[in-house]
Design a protein that fits this description.
The protein is of the alpha/beta class. The protein is built from 17 helices and 14 strands. Helices cover 45% and strands 15% of the residues. α2 crosses α3 and α16 runs antiparallel to α17. The longest helix has 19 residues.
């Protein structure tokens, strides 16, 4: 269990460097392995998909079995209970309402001289949604289905393909299938890891390629997305999950520990960091962590995560806490302080911010409405949460009148000739040249 340490200090810097080093690294051997998988799927198509899926997920699956049928979707719907569907529909309503605010219209600006400038906003033609398997299908990541599919649907994407690894018997958890059907996703392929990304990027006889690929995954998925980026669009390169909690002397240590564990249980590579102005609070949180771990089903994962990448930092004041938070640029940032709204304007880098003791990060993960696919490993310095924008393209529109062209021709030609592009200049000059 991490012990409280002062920030700034040499010990704190060493701990921060250890946490920082969790970023998606350049392991040449692993990257080559992923390159080989991508290349094989590109060349061999369905044959490669079936081989990988049989080797790593479902030994008896057939080629036809790699795609979910309408009968499977109907069967899944009959296996889930009505209380689950009620909760699911409320979550869908919340997430839909939030993401609808992100829609942006096309716009056009007509000027007095007859010039028209504008921007057309159009959805991409297709999108692939990667949904991790969740302990071999035992823990279906329903929230990830909603967070990926709903923004794409709101954007107007006409073709959504969901990929997720099958269970060992070749099936997919019915709760996940029911969630997909509820948000209108019916093209579902039983594929995981890097070969699923390859199928979405390149296409095979049974899997149509997509223009954009989104969704979280393990290191193989992240590397595969990195390697196909440019051939297709991707959302972001997600690393291990992380949380940073800023707390003052009024914060409840039991709440703080619970919130740190909510991320630590994800993965041994996850990072949970407390930054507090109170040594007393830090020590109390350390005790609470030890106590709450005893009853946590995923205690081994959480304990490993805390020991390797957790931290309890004490600072002189909230200004130092903010400095550290902006330095880390965390995926999730909780402000459990007396006046969280007073700190919010000073937050420069964070994937999502949760204000006050009544807003644990899990509220955002599942139900409130904002997206939980967030930038990790410091990338909140330049990246944003998954949104409707990830599924939209913007096309510039330009229409000049004769008056406008004659007015601007000399300026355009001068700039073009300075760049050595005489044909560019000539394409304008020929239109305004006096008639012979």
């Amino acid at each position: 269990m991490p012990r409280p340490m002062r920030y700034p200090s040499a010990d704190a810097d060493r701990r921060l460097e250890l946490i920082r080093a969790r970023r998606l690294g350049a392991d040449p051997a692993l990257e080559q392995q992923v390159r080989d998988i991508l290349a094989r799927v590109k060349d061999a198509g369905d044959e490669a998909l079936l081989d990988y899926t049989r080797r790593f997920d479902a030994p008896e699956i057939t080629l036809d079995g790699l795609t979910v049928t309408a009968a499977e979707l109907d069967a899944a719907r009959s296996q889930v209970d009505e209380p689950f569907l009620a909760v699911l529909r409320q979550a869908i309503a919340n997430i839909t309402a939030f993401h609808r605010q992100q829609l942006r219209p096309s716009w056009f600006d007509t000027r007095d001289d007859g010039t028209l400038l504008g921007q057309m906003v159009r959805p991409v033609s297709s999108a692939g949604l990667y949904i991790p398997g969740g302990q071999g299908g035992a823990t279906p990541l329903i929230s990830s289905v909603l967070m990926n599919a709903i923004p794409a649907t709101i954007a107007g994407v006409g073709d959504l393909a969901l990929v997720t690894p099958p269970r060992r018997d070749g099936t997919i958890n019915p709760f996940l299938l029911a969630a997909a059907a509820e948000v209108g996703v019916t093209r579902i392929h039983k594929l995981g890891s890097a070969w699923a990304i390859a199928a979405l990027a390149y296409g095979t006889a049974s899997v149509k390629p997509t223009a954009v690929i989104v969704g979280p995954g393990n290191i193989y998925v992240a590397l595969a997305k990195k390697l196909v980026a440019g051939e297709v669009g991707i959302d972001l390169l997600a690393g291990p999950s992380e949380i940073l909690v800023i707390a003052d002397t009024d914060a409840n240590p039991a709440y703080l520990a619970a919130d740190l564990l909510s991320q630590a249980e994800h993965d041994p590579m996850a990072s949970a960091v407390l930054v507090t102005t109170s040594v007393k609070v830090a020590e109390a949180v350390r005790s609470e962590l030890a106590m709450q771990l005893e009853s946590l089903p995923r205690s081994d994962i959480a304990r490993n995560s805390l020991n390797r990448y957790g931290a309890l930092f004490t600072v002189d004041d909230l200004e130092q806490a903010l400095e550290l938070a902006n330095r880390i640029a965390p995926e999730h940032l909780e402000l459990q302080v007396r006046d969280p709204w007073g700190l919010l304007p000073k937050i420069r880098h964070a994937g999502a911010v949760f204000l006050g003791a009544n807003t644990p990060e899990a509220v955002g993960d599942y139900f409130a409405g904002p997206n939980h696919v967030l930038p990790t490993a410091g990338t909140a310095r330049f990246a944003s949460a998954l949104s409707v924008d990830n599924f939209l393209k913007k096309t510039s529109v330009v229409a000049y009148s004769r008056t406008a062209l004659e007015r601007d021709a000399e300026a355009i030609c001068r700039l073009a000739r300075l760049e050595g592009l005489d044909a560019h200049a000539a394409s304008v000059a020929i239109r305004v040249r006096p008639a012979p």
